Amino acid sequence: MSDNTILDVKKLSTHFFTENGVVKAVNDVSFSVSEGQTVCIVGESGCGKSVTAMSIMRLIEDPPGKIVDGEILFQDKDLIHASKKDLRRLRGNDISMIFQEPMSSLNPVLTIGEQITEPLFEHRLLTKKQAKQEAIKLIELVGIGRSNEIFHSYPHQLSGGMLQRIMIAIALSCDPLLLIADEPTTALDVTIQAQILELLKEIKEERNMSMLLITHDLGVVAEVADYVVVMYAGKVIEQGSVLDIFKDPKHPYTQGLLQSKPVLNQRKKRLYSIPGQVPNLIDLKPSCYFYDRCEHRMSICGGSIPEKMEVDDNHQVACWLYEKEEVRT
Amino acid sequence: MNSYFIKRILYLIPTLIGASILIFFLYSLIPGDYVDTDPNLTAERKAELKELYGLDQPVITRYFTWVGNLFQGDLGYSLQFQRPVTEVLGNYIWSSFFVALASLIITWFLAIIIGVISATRHYSLFDSTVTFLVFAAMATPSFFLGLIMIKFFAVDLGWFPAGGMITTGSNFTGLEYFKDLAEHMILPVLVLVMLSVGGLTRYFRTNMLEVVRQDFVRTARAKGLKERVVIFKHAFRNAMLPAITLFAFELPALFSGAIITEQIFNWPGIGAIYMQAFTVRDYPLLMGFTMFIAVLTVISNLIADLLYGVADPRVRLK
Predict the structure, then answer these.
(1) Is the minimum CB–CB distance between B215 and chain A shorter than 8 Å?
(2) B237: nearest CB among A87, A109, A154
(3) Domain total for chain B?
(4) Is B227 in the A-facing interface, judged by CB distances under 8 Å?
(5) Domain boundaries of chain A, sorted by first residue
(6) Which secondary structure element, helix H or strand E, spans residue A96, and what is its range?
(7) Lowest mean pLDDT segment, chosen from A84-93, A155-164, A195-204, B77-86
(8) Residue from the list A59, A96, A156 with its beta carbon closest to the beta carbon of B314
(9) Is domain A5-94+178-192+209-328 in CATH 3.40.50.300, yes or no?
(10) Are B116 and B208 in contact (CB under 8 A)?
(11) What distance in Å separates the CA atoms of residue A121 and residue A114, rounded to the nearest whole number?
């Protein structure tokens, strides 16, 4: 790993212990984020993207969830064994997070102002007057006018796009080194999506902040990512630079995902879709989890889990297709 | 806001008229009256008494007389006490009120604390133990619970008096009187608290559990706030919103007395008077009291709506 790595996730496994069995939501996931880099985690619903993000923030509800294995290093600090107090100092300060649903992510009974100033009091120890000035500045930074009026309004008086801007303002309030955005545009309509992404990109570049973006939207990935991590059924199946992933996808799943993306000015009767469904994450057999849906499946795929391997510089894939002959047999 | 308030007040009028019709006609549907309860009276004497009390008039006339008197603040005339109903209520309602108020405060205080702790330590030993105890207390009938209390605390241990409101024959004044009253109140209040704390605890626990799963609580945690702030500033306020309505409904209950508990502890409250009025068919007292509670219920409903607007910005009126 390079020297300016700020977040290093190693062999992270987060499981949920439910009545029906153990759900391996995140299963042996490794990746890293360097300073100023944007890493995207892509995958369909239920593949463990959000749980990965929540694990990094240590916001997994315990019980039923538990980080059972692995390491999360943030600036060489171990987050998994960090004390509650240390975690609290990091959250909202060095690492902040924005969520998928801006409508429900803000407290309905507190004003926007109260909610923006909270981290300012907590981490930057500002006085009331300073905090208000700072909050007004933040509201303007995320592109909302009438900042003084917004400061005193309640979440239900604002639109979804505005609320997501407020969430971004809260996340930025203490100059974080890393911003985790968990599907920040999913709940918004398309024009607002583009605006929010543009805003995130701008702010990121201005502040040389790192960003971990969780999304299922490949358009978003192409737009903002430097590095892409593709997840499937709790495992990383491919990871590489955004160019590698889009130009030369290796894993049949990644290839399928890219094929099912609509392309402008190309008339197609029907969009490609990967046949089959995501497997149930309870009681997975030791096999490639994409086995049932894969066009290139071989006998070995149904019997053992492929290891992640380097296919190119900084481009890794977990698929038996790329394993050398002698290992396969 | 003002026009809304006036509108709400105006709505009270048809509601109260409806209540007065229901109350009056339900009681007049019951055959027999106060005069009929005394079998020793001659027919002539009965007719004389009925005429005196106005019971010989047609029902409609009697209704309007009753409502007309209500407007002048006259709830009727208690036949059993031979005094105005307002005076009888005034004599007994406060003793019920103090017991109800004390138990209300203690119940809510306990229920909120236990509910919040149970919810934040979901499925812990504390949660299961307290839930069990609270339900056991709630499931026990009040007469049984009351008698157990008397046997244990009053008879065996002798800590508290077994019944009554003040020590018989005593002539305390000032602080002494207050201390004596408090000692007599402890057992009935304890019984009432035990009976009602279960349901309320369960209510707060469920509300809290629902709220702590909400996205904005996760946001609060993601901001790096202290757990105490997350629970009390972010979750608790939202969990308390529906409780406002519940709290407003406690207002009429403060004045309506506890029939069984008051009987057991020989507490001279309105609950006991209410029961007694039934046995002697003192309908004016019953009607007056029911109407009084109806008015309180309607008013507390209005208060609940207004308070809700204060607490929840989403329903706040422009």
Answers:
(1) yes
(2) A109
(3) 1
(4) yes
(5) 5-94+178-192+209-328, 102-173
(6) strand A95-98
(7) B77-86
(8) A156
(9) yes
(10) yes
(11) 10
